[in-house]
Amino acid sequence: MAKPIPKMGSRKNGRIGSRKYARKIPKGVIHVQASFNNTIVTVTDVRGRVISWSSAGTCGFKGTRRGTPFAAQTAAGNAIRTVADQGMQRADVRIKGPGLGRDAALRAIRRSGILLNLIRDITPMPHNGCRSPKKRRV
User: What is the value of pTM for the model shown?
Assistant: First the structure.
């Protein structure tokens, strides 16, 4: 009787999430998305594949405290700590959104020891975008 073909995603036939060797990433891109309610920091390689991410919510902040600068600073520190261990030395920073955590996250990235090539603001700005709703009549 023939052996059954193992499924590619099954747990029995290999490692899930771990690697034989640690990936070395010398250069990357740090994306900071700062809304009024939360701050999300994502670290990718140059091709855009996510290496590490963190947000104020995953750092344990609840409710309105997620939108604070301290929560953004903590989230940026957590996201960068893992990639610094993998050997990241240089990075580009792309900041998006109007939130309070923009400057705090950038300050935390600066302090981490990673050299920054460029800091770019990619907040989408409407060029007289959608038509506004009609005026309220009471």
Answer: 0.79
One-character DSSP codes across 37-57: S-EEEEEEETT--EEEEEETT
CATH of domain 27-121: 3.30.420.80
d(C-alpha 103, C-alpha 122), whole Å:
14
pLDDT, tens digit, 9 for 90 and up, residues 79-116:
999 899 889 999 999 999 999 999 999 999 999 999 99
Question: Taking 60 as the threshold, does the pLDDT of residue 119 lie above it?
Answer: yes
* Cα-Cα-Cα-Cα dihedral sign, residues 95, 100, 104, 105: negative
| 23, HSE (Cβ side, Cα atoms, 13 Å) | 14
Q: Where are the domains of the chain?
A: 27-121
